[in-house]
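Ticket closed. Logging final result for RagB/SusD family nutrient uptake outer membrane protein.
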Amino acid sequence: MNAGIFYKTEQDMNQAVMSPYASLRSLYNQLFIYAGEVRSDNTTFSWVPGNSKDMTSIDNFGDVLLSDNSFVLGLWNNSYHTILRSNIVLDKIDAVSFTDPKLKEQYKAEARFLRALTYFWLVRTFGDVPKVDQQLSVADAYKLGRASTQEIYDLIVADLKFAEANLPATYSAIDKGRVTVGGAKGLLAKVYMTMAGYPLKKGAPYYALAEAKALEVINMPQYALVSDYKTLFDVTKKNSTESLFEIQYKKGGTSTGSPWNNDFAPRFSNREVVLVGDKGGFNAPTPSISDAYEKGDPRKAISMSDGYVSVPGGKFINEKYVKKYYDVSFSNSDNDNNWIELRLADIYLLYAEALVRQGKQQDVALSYLNKIRTRARNSAGGSADILPDYKPFSSDAELLLAIEKERRVELAFENHRWFDLVRTERAKAVMTQEQKEQNGFNPSAWNDTMLLFPIPLQVIQSNPEKIKQNPGY
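Final structure:
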């Protein structure tokens, strides 16, 4: 369609707003999983096609993660494509007449939230990145270098504050899945937590901001933990009371289905794991995440399996796989699962951590940590004699490790683990041990440059005067 005759009506702008939402699927399908999970100690590859260094170098710190990595380039390009779609909305909307001015501001708020979310991924993955907050000509684009991490976070915070002020609390059923004020508040709490930690290290004032924003979400009456952990990932119960924001997928041959049930299944399994379609063998749980669950924790059986029984033959195949996103495909890799980007349990745990990092209210922090454990033991497959409530800890450091561990098992395979390790400066200690055990990595080879991905070579080659490589690459 000719852009010159589009963007004229409220209906046009509604379609335009849907565009960056749709663009998120290309990121969550695989690319963000590589950055958030495979890079961490949570998952690895049980199978790779041929000798794919593009995949293994993300997972194995002993391999060199090269700037010409196709997945790194894909993450960069698809992120900026999503930002472009948001910027188009923001650049075009003021010229369009709306019968309801609040609706115009809502559409702007949605676009700014989606831009902020995408930049949050970019800045945590690459560090300094170009700041593109409007449509640019080719000539103007070549004038852009990498904005500082601080400047990108300033944009993210400004976008989220605008979103928070202009988004509705809920939608009618037909618009279910659009971001709400709760989603903006929740992401802002997470952004503040990240800014408080590494690399900006803004410390106590930002932990206080995160605490306040998280508490605002917690006090919103429309949100509550679902009673059964399994319900969160039931494709018939999407967008639950626990969900703050999730990327929407719909199977049925319309290219909007989700691929993870197929992608995560062991490559050489049969119908024992998935009923329809191929199996990818990536994002396989590591031994350490398997061991991280306490005995009897029902979240493990809901989230992953240590293997499967072959049919025919009845032999147990010791090959771990993620089963959190189970569905029966309409066709190959065409499933109904949404991806939950933000949910209330995440906010509970961030709130608890923010309190402890300020050295206050350990009892309140402990109560929110135990709310998560209570829900887990009351879930399907649980019992009263597992996951006892944590008792008061002798030090804040011990409590912080308990929160870290609870975040790992509660939010496993949801793209949080790597960034938690980075912002808390725990990546070196955790990953050198993990890599030593799994890949024979020499801990002395660790370098903090591994905390960021390389800027894609293609990006640097297209603008070498302005775009410089991250240190260490």
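The mean pLDDT is 96. No further action required.
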